[in-house]
Each structure stands twice: as C-alpha cells, then as structure tokens.
Amino acid sequence: MLKKQTMFPLVYVLIAAMVLVGCVAQPAPSAAGQQADGQEAMEAEKELVIVQGTEPWTMDMQWVTAQVIVNVGNHIQQTLLDYDHSMTLQPNLAVSWEQIEPTVWQYKLREGVEFSNGEPLNAEQVKFSFDRVMAPESDSMRKGETRYVSSVEIVDDLTVNFHTNGIIPLFDLYVTAKFPIVPQGYITEHGSEHFASNPVGTGPYVLEEWVKDDHITLRKNPNYWGDEPEIDVLTFRTVPDIASRVATLLAGEADIATDLQPATVQEVENREDLSVVSRPGMRSVFLLFNTKIDTPVTDRRVRQAINYAVDKDAIIANILDGFGKKLEGQVLSEEYWGYQAALEAYPYDPDKAKELLAEAGYPDGFDLRIVSPRGRYMMDAEISQAVAGQLKDVGINATVDTLEWGVFSEEQYSHEGGPVFLLGYMTVPDAARMLSIWHSTHPNDQHPDARFDELSDAAINETDVEARREIVKEAVEYFREDAPVVFLHQQYILWGVHDRVQNFAPFPDGRLKIDASIDVTGDR
Amino acid sequence: MSNFWSYVIRRAWQSLTILLGVSIVVFGLMHLSGDPIRLLAPIDTTAEELEAIRKLHGLDRPLPVQYWNFLSGVLRGDFGKSLRSGENALHLALERVPATARLALTALAFSLIVALPFGVLAAVKRNTWIDRTVMGAALIGQSMPVFWLGILLILVFAVNLGVLPATGTRAGWRSLILPGITLGMFNMARTARLLRSELLEVLQAEYIMTARAKGMSARVVLWRHAFRNAVIPLVTLIGLDLGALLAGSVITETIFAWPGIGRLSVNAIYGRDYPVVQAAVLVVASIYVIINFLVDLSYAFLNPRVNLS
After folding, report:
1. Which positions 433-492 of A are in contact with B (Cβ < 8 Å)?
2. Among A67, A157, A413, B289, whose Cα sits 20 to 30 Å from the Cα of A53?
3. Is the link from the previous residue into A448 a cis peptide, with omega within 30 of 0?
4. Would the CB atoms of B96 and A213 count as touching at under 8 Å?
5. In angstroms, rounded to a whole number, what is the distance separating the alpha carbons of residues A463 and B257?
6. pTM score of the predicted model
C-alpha cells in the first residue's frame, strides 16, 4: 500500500513534466519567426510567405526535379538559360549561345558572377556541374537529361563547348534551360549530402534556415549579379492539407497559397484582401490507352469513338468550375514549339461514337476499366468518374479503379494494366519532345506504332527549322487521328494571393519565381 | 540473478524480436509496393537509364540480399540514405522525433488536465445533470474525427477569431495549442470515462465505507483513498497512450503542418523512399516498445500483486 501511495504525487509530477516539456521546451523561434512576431521588424523588412502542398525533400536540384523543389531552389541556384513568361528562352548565366558545329554548342558565360560563397562562375564550374551528374557513379535521377551531352569542353574561362551525342537541334531547350550550375569548390569540400541541405548558388537569394517539413527561409543575396529583389525574405512553408493551406492564407499567415482546388476558390474570393490567380498551365490531362494488351481499345475506331463520347466542355464546366482549357486535339498548349493552332478537339458527338463502335464490331459496347489517381491532378478521380458516366451513354460499361500514385505507377509501367489511365504530362515546351513519350522505345509508351515512331524520330532529329515544322505538324495531326489518348484539358494553375503582393504572376509551367519586379506593400 | 533482472533480460529479448519482425514486415511491404526510381525520375527517362539508377541503388538485387544488406546496415547503425535526398535516413527520422514528442506530450498533458477533474466530478455527482453533461461531452469528444475537429478549430480560432496560428510552428508555444487539443481530445474523453467508472467502483469498496464510518470527511475519503486506487489502471493507459500518440499523430501533423515523424513517414511512403520509411518505422516502433517495457516495469513496481516472473 505504501507503494501505491507514492504513485499519487507521481501523476502530478508527470503532468507537470509534460506541461513543461510540451509548452516550454520549444526550439528557439527562427530568425524569420521572431520577425513575424515583431511588428517593427516586419516594417523594416519585406517578407513574402508562400505555402506549398509538398515539402521539398532536397535542395540539390541536380539530384531530382520537382515543382516544389524548383519553386524554392530557383531562387538559389541558376541555369545557363531561363524561360520568360511566354516560355521563350532568355540568357541567364550564359549571355549568348550558338550551335557552332552540328554537334557542338558554344555558350558564353556572364562575366563577374559569383556564387554566394565567393566562388567565381566560370567554365570549369559548368563542366563540373554536368560531369557530376553524367559520372558513371552518379545516381542522380536527372541523369537522363544529360543523355544528349557527350562531353563538356572548357574553351576559355568564360566559354564552354557542349559536344552532343548526334545532332540535337533543340539542345539549348532540352538541356540547358533547366539544369542548375553548382559550385565545384563547395561541393568538393563539403560533399553532396551537405549540399542537399545547405545549397549555395548564384541566385538572388541565399538559404538562411531550413526546418524540415516546416519552413525554408531565404534571404536576399547581397552579392547577386542581377537586379536587386524588392523582397528581403522569402519564406516557404509546407501545408499538405488543402483545407489547412487555404485556412493559413485566410488567417493572414501567408501571402501566396499554391495549388488550390476549384472548391476552395469561392472561399478565397469572398475575402476582399485576397485574390485567386489562375491561368492555363502547360500540363495536358488525358486518358492514356494501353494497346499492348488485347482489349477493344486496340482498334483505332474505338479510341476515336471514346474521344467523341467524352464531353470535355461539361467536365471543365461542372467538375473544374471552368478552371481547365480544352485540349485542341493535341497534348500540347500554345507554349509548345509545334503547337497546331488550326487543329480542333474531337467534338462531343455520342451518335458518331456509337457509329464508330458499331463499325468496329461493338454495337452493344463492352466493359472498360479506367485507372485513376486521386489528388495527383486537379479533381482527377472525379474526372475519371465523369468520363465513365459519359461512356455509359454510348454503351461502354466503364468502371473506375482509383489507386494511390505509387500503385498506379506500378500498374502503368507494367504495360499490362489499364487499359485506360488518367494522366497529365508536361515537358520542355517542344512538341517533338512531348510526343517522343509515345515513341515505342520510351518506357511510358503503351501504344507502339511504327508510323508514329518514324515521325517522332524525324521531328526530334531534323535540323532544318522549316522542315522540322512540317514534320511536327504531320506528327501532331497523325497523333490526333490515331488517338492513343482521350484529349481532355490543360490543367489550370490556381493560386490564392494576398492583394499586398504586387506584379505577381505564375509561369505557364507552374513555376514560382520572385524576381526584382515583384513587391509587397502594407501588412497581411 | 534476481527475478527482476531475468525479467528485464527476457523483455529486452522479446523487444528485439518484435523489432526484427517489424523490420521484416516494413521491408517486405515497402519493396512490394512499387518502384521508387520510376516515381522520382523525370517522365522522359528511358528504360536503360532507369535500370542504371536502380543498379546504383542496389535495387536490382534479389529481395533477400537487399534485406540482408539492410539488416546488417541497421546493426551497424546505418539505415542507408534517402533515395529522394541522399541524406542519412536515420538522421532524417531522429530529427523529427522532438517535434512529435512535443506534440504528443502536449496532447497527453491536455487530456490529463481536463480528464482528471472532470472524471472525478462525474463520479462524485453520479446520475446528476453534471455527470450526464460531462459524460455526454466525453462521448462527443471521443467520437469526433481528428481531421474534422482540427479543421474546425483552425477555422474558429485562427481564421475567425485570429487568436491562434492556423498551421506550422512559427508562433512558438502558441502553435502547440490547437494540434495538442486535436490530438489529445480522444484520450481526454476516454480517460475521463475510465476514471469515472473506476472511481465509482472504488467508492463502493468496503474500505471506503470503513473510512466514512471512521468519520473522515468526504473530501479526504475521495482524494486520499478512492482517487489513488482508481487511478492505478490509468498509469498503464497513460503509458500506452503516449506510445500511441507518438505513433499515431500522422493526421494531426498533416492538418496542422506539424514537422513530425508521422508526416515524414507519409511523405516517404508516397515517394517509396524505402530507407526513410524503414528508419522512421523502426524509430517509432523502438519508442513504442521501450515505453511499453517501462510501463510494464512501473506497473509491477506500483502493484505488488503483479509477479515479474
């Protein structure tokens, strides 16, 4: 009984300890956090807070590429070339570039650029950056992007020659617009693991603090070579749940919330101090046919019939609340080189669909399985369900299997699943590059077609611009006719933005970039 | 060797066996669930390039060989490197433990601070409107889904009233209040209900009647005799709750963007980042096993009727 008696105070000691540990033993608030609490500091310093849905898992942009990583990383690390808002290539760390021989591209580097640790930007750094990923022992996920490079040659301190594997007419677009240049000395000294959490680059901001899964704070780089940004501190926060992300914006804790859903738009628009920024993005959403297994969709007429049977306008209006732009018979948006403005979408025509199905020998329809992700693309599972409903009207008994993304991918890459998958693709803005995903040698291709392979090869390799234009036109038209997909829509970029943010607009590829033109005024 | 030490050694051995089992299950499930390289590589990576990257990560080897490599690494304290970031997987898991522990302890503190007085009140005022109100509220607290309660609290206290932060940790201790309440609500309700029923049982016991007969005040009888005995089963429950709170705060961490091990695990599972999932699960399992072990030990100490052998 004595031992029982000793237990009673123990409970209170336990509670006291918990209160103490739980409420007091906090980590010291971050520098940015302290500033958030201090009104005076807020006035002295301009801070922009962005909430994203996914946490960047590395800051080594040479290791892996993902939107959330690029959104943070492109303020720290830079590329030789960059895109403007129309996705046209612009000088960045390189001031000029040209194809001096069929298999040699020469880049002239910007003079006087330094990494934030003081290392100069020169040809050696560029060579190191590419060699680091191309090395046999490199396990970078971006290795594939360097497949066009056979070697990097240092011509002089500020001139680099890229020797390419074969003639690559759009080498600049394919390779040098998204590939970051990293500091050789820093990485050699500290190692790649350190670099992944403590990146150094030539960009307008430097990393100040990274509390994993919570926030990343970037501060203005005092030695930046370009125009000085107006905003002193960029804070990227991760709030995975969409309702919480919107609430964070509504509560005045953020200036920009990325990746809204149509259902959350009204909530943001109801507020006088918030706006929804939207525009059609470069990601094309479609239903992919797997014709490698024996199902009715191996017949072109059936694939065309399904294209006629799906009412794209209704999906955009009713499920996406207008936040989608119909694909005009191509998996491309107008930012892509080779976009065919004259091409039109398959019209919604259930009678024509039935006619084609009867012609193909399926007057009574058939069973069809649609495999859909959930939460990967805007309203993806709901769109799949709507398509299944519309297909029932033409006699196709479609069912939807909604799978977690990893399981979905496993089935897709098995080439034995489906036969219909809901997907959204985006590549560098070149039609030939996008279409090359349907080349029979590509791991994603589910519809091998000899004629399309010929067109795709020719479109990638043709060096004469006019001839290339014609080939791409033919390839895009053939793709529409052959219908290896059901063309749906361009996914919208849908962000909530506080009105104190000035001159802000997202890029068509969904990238977030805070440059010198963007400013903030007043308080949240 | 005393009974105590042989018990400790036996339990430690059992714990190791459990952790080995956990490692096999998590390794097997993860490796059967999909290809991490395909998920991470850009869309236009060719089959040969994918295979080359798999080979560099050792993912082309037979599963038993991969498991053996993993297990021998774990014994050396090497859980491998994250497939997504290249960072030390164990380090990634361990650096999230303090945030999860802060949240779990806050939730536990909240649940006890509320549950103990209200549980006692309900028992003392048995079958009155107070009892019915407290128990009704407890039932509601126990029934509310975490994700619903979390969003509701955010909307009320952050968006409408603006008195507490919605998400994240930037507001220091104030950031802990809403996620702490959300995570602790279920435990609070259950603890209050359990305490009430235990207390009612004890209050019927003969020694309580004896104490009353001796002329002790109701207050002394309640706190010195009844409460102390009624609270014994709670000690076990608190220990198990703490383990469950540490392991089960995934939804709360997601809603409140709390940088804990639950969110790390979920992100790693979605990305098929095998080494990080394995490290995170084994860290959580170890904490759970250790807490259980300590609870068993403390229970044996507190209650002499429990035989260690």
Report:
1. 433, 436-437, 441-444
2. A413
3. no
4. yes
5. 50
6. 0.85
